[in-house]
UniProtKB/TrEMBL annotation:
This is Rhamnulokinase. SUPFAM superfamilies: Actin-like ATPase domain. Residues 254-445 form the Carbohydrate kinase FGGY C-terminal domain. Belongs to the FGGY kinase family. GO terms for cellular component: cytosol. It comes from Cohnella rhizosphaerae.
Length: 491
């Protein structure tokens, strides 16, 4: 029963999960959990990357002091963000946070150089203002001095792996999210890099999930007194790992990875690069074992988290269960928002922005905490239906239900309302999807599991999956029609 370690880094916290296989079932143990708080300095929002490294080292010390022998390590995190290594391999500044305002207004400027249709045909990636391509274009346009000294571009898991192993590698699932990776050549798009004036040598070799990515370096082993543990590239975009952990027994399925972001989609073997996919602003992100994730990014529980922070600043602290209870007790279908309206992207006063959105769209703003929470959760559930219908259109499939994974499934009210909104069952679990998918790729790499299909079967047998059935079909159908009209979303 050898232990392996998954580092799963989210936009608000990080966790280190131990995994072991026992009698054909997965056992997990949370070894360490820590906050991941961005830092505002000099008018810019950064990730505290060295604090994350410190916490990862504390995890290894906890394992050592607990007599735990770790057989291998994998790291997954959020996508799009990156750091630079300089001439001597040192970190050049703290990575920018994807919610930093330096990319405001940058998309139209880049499209003047490279048309949208050309960019999508090359990369198959959804247009979001914080994609790595737009961050780099913004840095270049501003003459940021980091670019003069940079020698290597490393995504967040790449960077942390480098700190632990001393080896610099990219990884497929995360590389695709940069919008700099060719969906057809399956490598960095050299023509695109040249058009943007980005040095090709910044972008090194790209590993596939399951490839060996080195071992803990001598410096780290001497510092911590631990052995040179092997490190694997996993599906290092956390959504890629979450999709590995979808406990689907069917070949074709739809999933929703639910957390700070909601990502709804399906697995395909080749990217969908049609004009319709571009018009719907869908994305084709790399997946594990020869797959792509055809999906839509939706703003997700970020709106809930920021609303909670706003109420705390006003002196009213609510737990998440309290907020859910208040939402359930509020009147149904009072007001709707489009969670993906750009007003909800930056940090700030979400309840105030929700009220302003409602006034702008001719609605009475929700009054009070419960009504605001209900507005958010109902709107998310209805947006999930909108996106799922378009997943089915692009994939040419009809799915019998929706698999939900990730921390958001602990909000059982959202799971219930999602089932009602889509008019199909929701199968919820596991909650720690990204970390479990991370572990699964390590087991496949070591030969403990045969392949992705066996991994999903074992996950299904190891973790509870809760089924939510649709309720109040006619009321939700009426609400959906109203939601489409208010948000101006097309059928």
């Amino acid at each position: 029963m050898a232990d392996i370690l998954a580092y799963d880094l989210g936009a608000s916290s990080g966790r280190a999960l131990l995994g072991r296989l026992k009698d054909g079932r997965i056992e997990t143990e949370e070894l360490h959990r820590f906050p991941n708080d961005p830092v505002q300095v000099g008018g810019r929002l950064h990730w505290d990357i060295l604090r994350l490294l410190h916490e990862m080292k504390q995890t290894l010390l906890k394992a050592k002091h607990g007599g735990i022998e770790i057989q291998s390590i994998g790291i997954d995190s959020w996508a799009v963000d990156f750091g630079f290594a300089g001439e001597n391999g040192e970190l050049l500044g703290n990575p920018y946070h994807y919610r930093d305002a330096h990319t405001a207004g940058i998309m139209p400027r880049l499209f003047a150089d490279i048309p949208e249709a050309e960019l999508f045909a090359s990369t198959g990636i959804q247009f979001l203002p914080f994609n790595s391509i737009f961050q780099l274009y913004a840095l270049k346009s501003a003459g940021n001095p980091l670019l003069r000294e940079a020698k290597r571009f490393l995504m967040i898991p790449d960077l942390l792996r480098y700190f632990l192993t001393g080896e610099m590698h990219g990884e497929f699932t995360n590389a695709t999210t940069t919008q700099l990776f060719s969906a057809t050549a399956k490598d960095w798009d050299q023509a695109l890099l040249a058009k943007l004036g980005l040095p090709a040598e910044w972008f090194g070799p790209v590993l596939a999930p399951g490839d060996r990515a080195g071992s803990l370096s001598q410096a780290v082993t001497e510092e911590l007194g631990v052995p040179a543990i092997p490190v694997y590239a996993v599906a290092e975009h956390d959504t890629g790992s979450a999709v590995v952990a979808v406990p689907a027994l069917e070949e074709q399925f739809a999933y929703l990875s639910c957390g700070t972001w909601s990502l709804i989609g399906t697995e395909v073997t080749e990217p969908v690069l049609t004009d319709r996919a571009r018009e719907l602003n869908f994305t084709n992100e790399g997946g594990a074992y020869g797959t792509y994730r055809l999906l839509k990014n939706i703003m997700g529980l970020w709106i809930v988290n920021e609303s909670r922070r706003a109420w705390e600043r006003e002196g009213s602290a609510y737990s998440f269960p309290e907020l859910v209870a208040l939402a359930e007790g509020a009147p149904a279908f009072g007001a709707f928002i489009d969670p993906d309206d750009e007003v909800f992207l930056p940090p700030g006063d979400m309840p105030g922005r929700i009220a302003e959105y409602c006034r702008r769209t001719g609605q009475q703003p929700p009054e009070g905490v419960g009504a605001t929470m209900r507005c958010i959760l109902e709107s998310l559930a209805l947006k999930y239906r909108y996106a799922l219908e378009r997943v089915e259109e692009l994939a040419g499939m009809r799915y019998g239900g929706l698999h939900m994974v990730g921390g958001g499934i602990q909000n059982t009210l959202l799971c219930r309302w999602t089932a009602s909104a889509i008019g199909k069952p929701v199968w919820a679990g596991p909650a720690e999807g990204s970390a479990i998918g991370n572990l699964a790729v390590q087991w496949i790499a070591s030969g403990e599991l045969a392949d992705l299909r066996e991994a999903r079967r074992v996950i299904r047998e190891s973790f509870d999956v809760v089924t939510y059935a649709p309720e109040d079909a006619s009321a939700w159908e009426d609400a959906y029609r109203k939601f489409l009209r208010i948000t101006s979303l097309s059928q």
